[in-house]
């Protein structure tokens, strides 16, 4: 029982770390939506946002390996390679809200 609790705690810690990168990515994506920036700046910010999600991937994968209930976080992060971050922002925000809550269980 004790080892299972430690494992779940490890999953939460990894999910929280993934969310640090998710938060950075969402901030960059929000900056890229500003109408006052150039197209090249927008592209740079969008590329940096994707890079932050790539950095989140190993943490989300570890969380999922420890506790499969974190699979939605890992899957949503992975979808950023195919789907615009704008379309994933609400899901990522909700998943990270869970990870950072006082009862971080999906």
Key terms for this structure?
single chain, 106 residues, mainly alpha
Give a brief rundown of this model.
With 106 residues, the chain is mainly alpha-helical. The protein has helices at residues 2-32, 39-66, 71-79, 85-99.
Q: How would you describe the overall organization of this protein?
A:
This protein is mostly helical and 106 residues long. It has one domain. The chain has 4 helices and no strands. The longest helix has 31 residues, at 2-32. The radius of gyration is 15 Å and the shape is elongated. Residues 1-6 have low confidence and may be disordered.
Number of helices: 4
* Topology order in helix (H) and strand (E) letters: HHHH
Number of domains: 1
Task: Please give the number of β-strands.
Answer: 0
Strand content: under 5%
Overall shape: elongated
Output mean pLDDT.
Answer: 91
Rg result: 15 Å
Query: Structural class given helices, strands, pairing?
Result: mainly alpha
Topology (elements, then pairings):
Elements: H1 2-32, H2 39-66, H3 71-79, H4 85-99
